[in-house]
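step=encode ok
step=design start
structure_in=
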C-alpha cells in the first residue's frame, strides 16, 4: 500500500499549532493506538472460548494451552514490525507509519474474527488463526514506536510525560472496553453461545471502528519536521544512550509480565479460583479502569517532580503489595477480594508508565527514536509478554498453588525496580533546575 508522504504538515509545523490543534492531534493518535490494543488484548480475555473453537480437546488444559500459544504467536513478529515500521517512521514520518500499522491491524482482526472453527475446516482453522496473530503482532510492533514518539514530539517540553501517558491510558481504555464488552456478553449469553460466536462479536466491534480511525489519522499534522528539543548527546552513537536502552528493556520486560498477568486475571478467576465468568471479567474491568486514572496522575506528577521519583516509588509499593493482595483474593475468593486486589495492584503498577515512556524517548536521538523506542518496547514484550500466560498457566498446573503467580510476579517486579534506580533523570523541569543551580 503506497501512502503519500507530506514534505510539511498542511497546518504548519507542530510547534506552531494552537493548544486546541495540539490536543486534537494527541487525541487522534491516542484513539488509533487504543483501537489497535482493544482487539489485541480481547483475545486474552476470551482465551478459553477461542481455545474451544480452534483447539477442541478432551483436556481443558490442552485446549487452553493451544489458545494461549496462538496468543503468544502474535509476539513473534513484534520486533520485525518494530524494526521495519519504526525505521519507516524515522525516514518518512510518524503519520504514514501509523496509517500502515492501522490498516494491517484491521486486516488481522477481521481474519481472526471470521475464520471458521476446527469443526468446520479442520487444521486450516488454527493455521489461519496463527497467521492473523502474526499479522497483528507485526502491525502493533510498529504502532507503538510511531504513535508514542508522535505524542512526545507533539507535546510541550514540560508536558511530555502527561502527553505520553495517553499511550498507556489508551491501552487501558481499550482493555477496559474489551472487558466491559466481555461482561455484557457473559450476562446476555450462555457459555455455549460465548464459545460459539460471542468472542467473535467482541473482535468485530473493533473492526467496525478501523475505517473511522484511519480517517482521523489522515487529518494529523506530521511531527518529523519539528525542531528537536530533547537534550541528547549523540556524538558517541549508541553508547550515548545505551543505559536508558538497557534499563528500558528490563523495566518494560518487568511491566509487560505484570500487564499480561493482569490480562490473564479473567482466565485465572475462572480456571484457578473457580469464580464465575461474569465476576472474573468484572475484576478485569476494574484493574484496567483504575489504571486509566493512575497513569494520568503519574504523568502529571512526573512533569512536575521528575521521572525517577514517579518510577521508583510506585514500583516499590507494587512489589511490596503483590503477595498480601494475592493472599487476600486466593483465601477469600469472593467479589470484594478479587476486585479489591485487582484495583490496588493495578493502581501502583500503572502509575509509572508516563514517566518511563518519557525517560526513554528523551534519551534517544530523533533520527533513530521511533525505531529504537519500538524495539525497546517490542523485544521484552516478545520474549516475556508472549510467554507470560503460558508460563503462568504451566506454573499453576505444576505447583497446584494459586499463590505461585504472586511469587513469580514479585521477583520480576523487583528486577524492574532495580533498573529504575539505574535510570538517569531526564525531565526538563529537573534539567532546567540543575542548569540554574
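sequence_out=
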Amino acid at each position: 500500500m503506497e501512502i503519500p508522504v507530506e514534505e510539511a504538515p498542511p497546518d504548519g509545523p507542530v510547534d506552531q499549532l494552537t493548544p486546541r490543534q495540539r490536543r486534537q492531534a494527541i487525541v487522534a493518535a491516542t484513539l488509533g493506538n487504543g483501537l489497535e490494543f482493544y482487539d489485541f488484548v480481547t483475545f486474552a480475555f476470551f482465551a478459553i472460548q477461542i481455545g474451544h473453537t480452534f483447539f477442541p480437546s478432551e483436556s481443558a488444559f490442552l485446549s487452553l494451552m493451544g489458545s494461549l500459544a496462538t496468543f503468544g504467536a502474535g509476539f513473534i513478529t513484534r520486533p520485525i514490525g518494530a524494526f521495519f515500521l519504526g525505521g519507516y517512521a524515522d525516514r518518512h514520518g510518524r503519520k504514514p507509519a501509523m496509517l500502515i500499522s492501522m490498516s494491517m491491524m484491521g486486516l488481522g482482526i477481521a481474519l481472526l474474527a471470521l475464520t471458521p472453527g476446527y469443526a468446520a475446516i479442520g487444521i486450516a482453522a488454527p493455521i489461519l488463526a496463527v497467521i492473523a496473530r502474526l499479522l497483528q503482532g507485526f502491525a502493533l510492533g510498529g504502532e507503538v514506536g510511531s504513535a508514542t514518539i508522535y505524542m512526545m514530539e507533539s507535546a510541550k517540553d514540560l508536558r511530555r510525560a502527561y502527553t505520553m501517558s495517553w499511550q498507556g491510558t489508551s491501552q487501558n481504555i481499550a482493555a477496559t472496553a474489551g472487558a466491559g464488552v466481555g461482561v455484557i456478553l457473559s450476562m446476555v449469553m450462555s457459555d455455549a453461545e460465548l464459545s460459539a460466536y460471542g468472542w467473535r462479536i467482541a473482535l468485530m466491534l473493533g473492526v467496525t471502528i478501523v475505517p473511522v480511525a484511519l480517517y482521523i489519522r489522515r487529518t494529523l499534522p506530521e511531527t518529523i519536521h519539528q525542531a528537536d528539543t530533547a537534550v541528547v548527546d549523540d556524538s558517541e552513537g549508541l553508547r550515548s544512550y545505551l543505559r536508558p536502552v538497557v534499563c528500558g528493556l528490563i523495566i518494560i520486560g518487568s511491566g509487560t509480565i505484570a500487564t499480561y498477568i493482569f490480562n490473564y486475571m479473567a482466565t485465572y478467576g475462572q480456571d484457578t479460583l473457580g469464580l464465575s465468568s461474569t465476576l472474573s471479567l468484572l475484576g478485569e474491568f476494574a484493574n484496567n479502569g483504575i489504571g486509566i486514572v493512575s497513569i494520568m496522575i503519574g504523568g502529571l506528577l512526573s512533569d512536575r517532580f521528575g521521572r525517577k521519583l514517579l518510577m521508583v516509588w510506585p514500583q516499590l509499593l507494587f512489589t511490596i503489595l503483590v503477595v498480601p493482595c494475592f493472599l487476600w483474593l486466593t483465601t477469600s475468593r469472593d467479589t470484594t477480594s478479587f476486585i479489591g486486589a485487582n484495583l490496588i495492584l493495578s493502581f501502583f503498577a500503572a502509575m509509572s508508565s508516563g514517566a518511563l515512556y518519557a525517560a526513554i524517548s528523551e534519551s534517544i536521538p530523533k533520527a533513530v527514536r521511533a525505531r529504537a523506542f519500538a524495539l525497546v518496547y517490542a523485544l521484552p514484550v516478545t520474549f516475556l509478554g508472549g510467554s507470560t500466560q503460558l508460563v503462568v498457566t504451566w506454573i499453576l498446573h505444576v505447583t497446584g498453588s494459586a499463590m505461585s503467580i504472586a511469587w513469580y510476579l514479585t521477583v520480576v517486579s523487583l528486577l524492574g525496580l532495580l533498573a529504575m534506580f539505574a535510570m538517569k533523570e531526564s525531565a526538563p523541569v529537573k534539567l532546567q533546575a540543575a542548569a540554574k543551580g
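step=design ok
step=annotate ok -> Residues 12 and 44 are 42 Å apart (CA to CA).
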